[in-house]
Design brief:
Two copies of one chain form a homodimer. By secondary structure, chain A is of the alpha/beta class. The first copy, chain A, folds into two domains: 75 residues, Arc Repressor Mutant, subunit A; 112 residues, Rossmann fold. Chain A is built from nine helices and nine strands. In chain A, the strands form two sheets. A seven-stranded mixed beta sheet of chain A has the order 5-6-4-3-7-8-9. In chain A, strand 5 and strand 6 form a beta hairpin. The radius of gyration of chain A is 19 Å and the shape is globular. The N and C termini of chain A lie far apart (44 Å). At the A-B interface, helix 1, helix 5, helix 6 and helix 9 of A face helix 1, helix 5, helix 6 and helix 9 of B.
Chain lengths: 209, 209
């Protein structure tokens, strides 16, 4: 099971399946077919089976998948049995919104540090985490075992804080800034472009009519 | 060119290519190969060529693509030659962050209305748009020709405001709430799960070491 063999699109779908399964479990559903998963996500059932086949044999022909069991397996595959400690760099509107976003905590992501360069924001309490000055970044990373840094600072500052995260040994960076960031090959980087979702809607609106 | 023939993953990649091309143009680059596009996005060059082939012949063998021309074509394909008017439902931290997000305006998305049920938020100015009371939703949609509604309200309220958008004739909904929403088939819906990005990082962190 090597990461480089698995297409990123598959990993994204697996995480969406895990969310659907989690909703099904909450609703008390015990078994589910690949068709039902496929329909709720908007892909083909062949795609669901192919995505899962990367990781072994799941489910029983004619019966489907046990929701509990498949969710457990996906949780393991996605590395979500471990709790990952996060730091948010930038406590502006977006940083604060992410700090308060319940979806992170519900899925095993724990926001352990929030830092900002602006002294007016230092000391604010965001869902139980107090904003620290940016100066303390390296200390916090070490003390609180930070594995993922979330960049919400302005574009002009983004590379500088990313370099500090990398130098302090943070192995993964989630970039919400519009800046294209450079990281060394051993660091995992993901760029979030909130406008991508709007472009997909724009495409659909343009081609539906 | 019918939307249903084009895989969603392709549309997502096209919008990422368009962002890269826009960065290249800003940097003064005039031509680019499919390999260069592929490397900057993290897919294969065959994938880039396949994605573009859905829409016709672009580029010249051995020379590559003219950045300006390909960007213009992608802009047309994605429906971004038109300006889309958006309304944000919910002026909390996330709604405010989105209202201030520069990436939307830069790409032809214009936030024309922001509404909230909380009277303490009504009257706030977010990047030039004043927060209106939720009661005015239907009037604003009509007056300001809103085509995309962005849901940032709590899960418990999300379906109710979505129904109001749909009844008022809004053809597209972008859902940031964790609620699974129901819309009629003629309405385009996209769900944004901010935790998906963290799950992909978690997967990579788990399988890299």
């Amino acid at each position: 099971m090597k990461a480089y063999k698995i297409p990123e699109a598959t990993v994204i779908r697996l995480s969406i399946y895990s969310r659907q399964l989690s909703n099904l479990r909450k609703a008390g559903v015990e078994t589910v077919s690949s068709e039902e998963i496929a329909n709720s996500v908007g892909v083909s059932s062949a795609q669901v089976r192919k995505d899962l086949a990367y990781f072994g044999e799941f489910g029983t022909r004619g019966v489907g998948y046990r929701v509990d069991e498949l969710l457990g397996n996906l949780t393991k595959i996605l590395g979500l049995t471990k709790e990952w400690n996060l730091a948010i760099i930038g406590a502006g509107k977006l940083g604060s919104a992410l700090a308060l976003y319940e979806g992170f905590r519900q899925r095993g992501f724990s926001i352990r540090a929030i830092v900002d360069v602006d002294h007016k924001r230092v000391g604010l309490d965001l869902a139980g985490v107090v904003v620290d000055p940016l100066d303390r970044l390296e200390t916090l990373i070490k003390e609180r075992d930070i594995k993922i840094g979330i960049i919400t600072v302005p574009a002009a500052e983004a590379q500088r804080v990313t370099d500090r995260l990398v130098d302090a040994g943070v192995p993964a960076v989630l970039n919400f800034s519009p800046q294209v960031l450079r990281v060394p090959p051993h660091v995992v980087l993901r760029n979030v472009d909130l406008a991508v979702n709007l472009k997909v809607l724009s495409f659909n609106l343009s081609h539906n009519s």
